[in-house]
Amino acid sequence: MRLERIARIAFESARKRRHKVTSIDKANVLQSSILWREIVNEIATEYPDVELAHMYIDNATMQLIKDPSQFDVLLCSNLFGDILSDECAMITGSMGMLPSASLNEQGFGLYEPAGGSAPDIAGKNIANPIAQILSLALLLRYSLDADDAASAIERAINRALEEGIRTGDLARGAAAVSTDEMGDIIARYVAEGV
Fold it and tell me: Where does the UniProt annotation place the signal sequence (predicted)?
């Protein structure tokens, strides 16, 4: 069953993170969500080291704004996931910050920025490359089991942001760097072992 496969991927992903899965549904209204919960609860028994919480979609949208750090892995249907992923992107300040991974059971997948290809700014050297670079970190962590390399990329991005380096989508009137400049800065920080 498809949900069982997706749930296992969520629990396996949580094992590489903070060991928490939040299943998002609408079980107080939708019959399909009641079945969703039953299946997720069944799969959760295979992962006693991972904490499972259930949350209704309307509460989840509010909780993401209120305290996004309470979440680790969100498990939800495509409908709810599409809504929540856009909300998560804007919590970071830009669609250019959010990576995406579509994983299969063997751990391989498709990694890409969640915001799409942005053809309207193609070739202008103004796109935020962070989502693409974070997508590489996801590939390293989830398909290649190269956690150290993924962490090095994440640390380099965090350092650049902590130093106030921003592309135009995040600059809000301040000086902005180009796509190439941001990529070069992050690459330098990775090489320096930040």
Answer: none
**What is the C-alpha to C-alpha distance for residues 102 and 110, in angstroms, rounded to an integer?**
5
Q: How many CB atoms lie within 10 A of CB 73?
A: 20
Quickly count helices (H) and strands (E) in the chain.
8, 5
Residue 133 and residue 172: Cα distance in Å, rounded? Answer: 22
To which residue do tokens 């751990």 refer?
Answer: 107
Task: Report which of 87, 76, 187 is spatially closest to residue 132, judged by C-alpha positions.
Answer: 187
pLDDT of 20 reads 98
All domains of the chain in start order, with CATH: 1-92 (3.40.50.2300), 94-194 (no CATH)
